[in-house]
Amino acid sequence: MSNLCIGLDINQEAIEFIQKKLRYKNVYYCDILTDEVSLVIKDNKFDHLVIVEVIEHLDNPTMFLKILRLKLHGRVERFILTCPTAWFYKNFIYALKNKECINTDHRYWFTPYTVCKIIKSAGLDIEEFYFVLSSGPRYNIF
Fold it and tell me: Does 2 reside within a domain?
C-alpha cells in the first residue's frame, strides 16, 4: 500500500476551497450513495477509511455504511467512524432546563448502543470503541 490519503465530499464548493486555498490535491467530489467508486479508489487499497462526523447528518446511516462496505470491499482494511454522543455533558444541562441545543443539520444523537446497532446492522464488525467527552484545542483554518 502506498502513502496516499484522499478526501471525498459532496460539497463542490468546499472541495474547491480545499484545493485552491489550502492546496490539497487529492480531494474529489463523490456521492458514495449514488456515484461509481472513483478510479482513485478502484486503483488503490487503503488501510483506513475515516468517516468524521457524517452519519448524524444522514437520513439512513445504516444504509450509508452498508453501501460503503459493499462498494469498498477489498479496498479498505478498516473504517474509523466518529459521531456526536448523546451523553455530552451540556446535553444533560440543557435537558434540565427543558431545552435542546442541536446543530439543525443533524438528524440524530448517538448512544453507545445506537451507534453499535447501526454499525452491526450495516454488516460491519466493531474492533474498538472510544468515548471522547470533551474537545481539545480548536484550530481555525479559515
Answer: no
> Which spans in the chain are helix H?
12-20, 39-42, 61-71, 89-96, 112-121
| 0.90 exceeded by pTM | no
Measured CA to CA, the distance from residue 119 to residue 47 in angstroms comes to 19
SS3 85: strand
Does the structure show a pLDDT above 80 at 135?
A: no
Mean pLDDT throughout 106-127? Answer: 94
Distance CA 18, CA 6 (A): 12
Q: Which residues contact 100 (CB under 8 A, 6 or more apart)?
A: 94
Q: Is residue 11 part of a domain?
A: yes
The total of structural domains in the chain comes to: 1
pLDDT of 142 above 60: no
CATH no. for residue 114? 3.40.50.150
Instruction: Read off the pLDDT of each residue in 58-73 and give the average, rounded to a whole number.
Output: 94
